[in-house]
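Standup, Tuesday
Yesterday: got the pipeline producing structure tokens again.
Today: sanity-check two examples.
Blockers: none.

Example 1:
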Amino acid sequence: MTMNKFGLHMMVHTPDWTEAGARRVFESAKKIGYDFVEVLIFDPHTMDAAMTARLSEEYGIGVATGLCGKLSADLSSTDPVIAKRGEDWVTHAIKVTRDMGATMLGGPSFSALHRYMLPPSELARERAVDAYRRLAKQAEAAGVRIGLEALNRYESNFITTVGQAADLCRKVGSKALFVHGDMFHMNIEEGDIPGAIENVKDCLGYVHVAESHRGYLGTGNTDWKAFFGALARIGYDGPITFESFSPSVLGPEMAGLIALWRDLWSDPDDVAAKALAFMRQHVRDAATAVA
């Protein structure tokens, strides 16, 4: 039997982490059978960690967190002032993650969610290694691990493949850092998804499952058998989170940020329930195939 725990991304239900929105996510996760929820930290300075920890305990559902950088606090910037703000941004997110009772902070903390017009500089890459060495020490002290989520080329220029994420993890050389793989982005950027997964088996620590068009799992062009088969072959037993977005949930501004122009579902509970059944079945089938 699989040891994977399954998570539900908060934005399947809500873009706002108020207590009312948070309760909807925790209630849905508990009702459907998810093990934890992923909370996106929009601003680590204003996030209500105590409320999240309280609801997590109330519902008996765990928490993982995610973080994006921003243009004014961007670890990938060549401007040392902006890069330092980016490092401070992650430092605060580590503390918020700890205070929520979570142990994993994923997402693209290395850059903003932005269409960059130039490739990253080598200077920025060197600075990022130094910054993540310092952040890894802070994370270790807090009992937290930091994941580097590879994004597609339209949303970042700094880490767009899981191999690039693994390269940074290996250069930092700390177990507090891991690769965060996301199938939506991998489907765009990786030429050989099973091969890419196998090449980062020493670093892979967290996985987002999302369909190629962000809709119901199994209704896009993703080769899920190949994906879950690769996870099984490397013995991946880490967490797997379902992530799907709908403009009717996110609202026009946030949907526009990720270029989500079609509404492929309107019932959060239905898409989440079918996703959990889909993921569990594929994990079981893949485990049987490699046994």
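Example 2:
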Amino acid sequence: MNPARLARPLRLAAYLLAGAGLLYLWTRFDAYQLPAEGCSPLLRFAPGDRLLLDRRPAPAREGDALLVRGEDGLLYLGRVTRLRRREGQREVWIETDSPTCPGRDSDEMGWIPSDRIAARVILVWPW
């Protein structure tokens, strides 16, 4: 078999594989920047930090930082402190820990079902 005959199909396969990988990354992950002039409800994040988000996260664990959708449709940032399973559905309890930045947490919203988890923070960089 002539290696030159394989070059074109292999190149096409490499392009298709790279395109599929980029499409997967584009649909799964997202970047978000906290407002530089605002505040963060979690002390481990500072105003202006950039967050890499997983929009289809695995089940939440204690300590995860999550963006959850409130019943008002807005997104809220919080840290998972408790987990429970109720009627076959996983629920999380989120809290905020910054005394200077008010945020909504489970003290106001109650247990949050997993279908209202919008994203999990997987990486933070401060530039």
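Quick observation on example 2: The longest strand covers residues 75-86. The CA atoms of residues 10 and 21 lie 16 Å apart.
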